[in-house]
User: Fold alanine transaminase from Salvelinus namaycush.
Amino acid sequence: MDVIDVSWGDPHRGGLKPLTFVRQVLAACFYPELVQSDKLPVDVKQRARSLLSACDGGSVGSYTLSDGISYIQCSVSNFISRRDGGVPSSPENIFMTSGSQRSLMLVLKLLVHNQASLPTGVLTAVPSYTAFKSALQTLGATVVPYYLDEEQGWAMEVEELRRALQASKGICNTVALYVINPGNPTGHVQSRKCIEEVIRFAAEERLFLMADEVYQESVFGEGSEFVSYKKVLSEMGPPLSHTVELASFHSASKGFMGECGLRGGYVELVNLDPAVMRYAYTIFSTDICAPVTGQLALELMANPPRPGDPSYPVYAQETQSIQAMLVHNMNWVPEVLNNIPGISCQPMMGGAFVFPRLYLPQAAIEKAKVVGMQPDLWYCKQLLEEAGVCVRPGCEYGQTEGNHHIRLCVMTPVETMEEVLKRLKNFHLHFLKEFS
Amino acid sequence: MDVIDVSWGDPHRGGLKPLTFVRQVLAACFYPELVQSDKLPVDVKQRARSLLSACDGGSVGSYTLSDGISYIQCSVSNFISRRDGGVPSSPENIFMTSGSQRSLMLVLKLLVHNQASLPTGVLTAVPSYTAFKSALQTLGATVVPYYLDEEQGWAMEVEELRRALQASKGICNTVALYVINPGNPTGHVQSRKCIEEVIRFAAEERLFLMADEVYQESVFGEGSEFVSYKKVLSEMGPPLSHTVELASFHSASKGFMGECGLRGGYVELVNLDPAVMRYAYTIFSTDICAPVTGQLALELMANPPRPGDPSYPVYAQETQSIQAMLVHNMNWVPEVLNNIPGISCQPMMGGAFVFPRLYLPQAAIEKAKVVGMQPDLWYCKQLLEEAGVCVRPGCEYGQTEGNHHIRLCVMTPVETMEEVLKRLKNFHLHFLKEFS
Ligand SMILES: Cc1ncc(COP(=O)(O)O)c(C=O)c1O
Ligand SMILES: Cc1ncc(COP(=O)(O)O)c(C=O)c1O
Assistant:
């Protein structure tokens, strides 16, 4: 039996096709003789020409400045400003990195002090993106867990943030709040009202806000809409809009483009003290610079083809088909999961993942204990071995005591997703029978 | 007046052309429809096909494993083994990274312990590659300086290593020795005998050896030859060959390829304890993975076209012309510099840089003091402003008290280099006149 792997948030691995426009421009940047070719659309050639003239030595093979190619920082800041309905954005606040995982790490380095008497704490959701927790651990910082409310579709509640912060007193010095919106692994998308409350809380408690918004392009749940922390902060006006320190993260890895392997990310730093900005520049320069290909991909994300451009029809058709797939999966996958006995799934609003809850029979839980595994990890192992479906267990992301979940990536072609759910259902029913 | 910048070690920025074979394969990997085109040689298409089939999802846009694409780890380890005349190399010991600067940092993370009573020390040459010293500082480690012998063409002497290590006792816990061979900024290439002595010293003192060999492809000085630390270590036989811990670094940034912007590096870890290797894997996974384009570039470096391949003639012509330029510059630039009064330059054996000494008039030194600058930094500023030549001052790399140097990159087309030296000479003579 062939294994179907829906454990990664890696669109191309999952079967999505790269966008033709993106790949044509990158190919032409690598081998500019192609610009002569009549096989490439005019706008592709033009774009490749202007990107190359923004590279030192006219080559993607030259180092860039440590914060990135200035032309691309400008494109990205214009993109942010358009996305946020005109809220200004400064190119000097944009730092390009080798993927947003690396930006997260570098911003954490700004925040974490190892010489202090208490370790540095960062408020981090449960469940949450695992690599962020590893990054904190690597730096000797402490995860301050706050729980998302599963019954409310994994919403974030300020009361819970307050509790978590209070509980951390004396254990660590909590300086920052990490938010993933749209959520990973939850598929939740925060409302403007929620974001306002979170910002007000951060302001009161003088917390640095880290807004991980890498899934901003994938918000297709009914009635949900992506609003950035930057936009809400700006619209809340002074004094908050001038004082709350915010880092907002985005990536070429997710969304329609899905170019994980190129390692392109950026972070926008807002309201930081000029001395801290200078220190940030030093920290970001430890890698020399971000990979040029990833930087170029972010420029193409910021400026996709527009109606009237020769590349537009193909681009529109490709992105619309990805969008149709996501709209379909976001509505349909939770529905199917909710119809399997012993599984419940919150509605999905955005991002790439669903995180259904498993009600495992007591006998299965005991069995897992005997083999020394977390019950949902053991479940995943069985699912892989018996049904050839690879998913990740809830224990990796964190969950409330005694509950179990799995994470599935829905950025997956519909036919593949159908097969996954069919196999999962059969396996699960069989599993329930065996252990009850 | 146009500025000529020979301050970077960035071949494409300096005017070198990318290798056609490399760029064609990369373009075809980005846009596989090109494989259909009749514009690309057959071997390029074949190579693109096999590289793509080594990528998950058949796309350069997928994440790879944290240590790299296995197929490329194998290519690299075969390359190492061929380079070293058959000394075996294991793919599991190869870690692909976002440039060798990043590998240096990650290996340092393995070595630096912040919880200890004394800071971790690393023996580091004076003069030395600056970003390595910054990396040490970022990690809270201590630079333990050892001086290269300028009169001996910047050779490394074990007696001096012993002195430096001794002097560090009580100040830090020195655990590693960092060696750059071929040298940056010195242009020195170590002899097999020197390497043997250094290895024996490392073994006696139980030091971890970090061999930065990113300039291994550029060794063209008369009578000099690149021999890797790995090869010498292996040929020294047991017990040393099985015990001395060695990390050897290489990069896609330098050599004929010169693809700095792609961020591709690798490190080979030799004789590490299996537990440390597992810890290394964890540390290297903090970035998720290295950029795929950089990894592909390293594969192409490891397996260039061979005689008989359709791409070979162009490849051979391009690399031969780069080689001719390097051979010419390596011999001719020190000669010209030595003919300028008040400048002396050691013979150049390899690498990308010359590091001539400036004998500055006392009045110029006083003048620099008045403006609060290091004399050679001030000299560089004048050279840039008055002659439009950008070089770097010796003070950035470290030098013995009271001496002054500049660093020039010689991976620069001959006509450009001629203009640089002409301007430098005129400026320098004028400068001497003004201050004496
Ligand atoms: C929430 C979140 N943030 C950041 C990342 C890192 O993405 P990248 O480093 O590829 O930009 C991921 C990857 O899955 C993610 O899910
Ligand atoms: C000696 C040495 N090591 C490492 C590097 C880093 O190169 P990269 O990170 O581009 O591979 C350089 C760059 O100039 C260097 O001179």
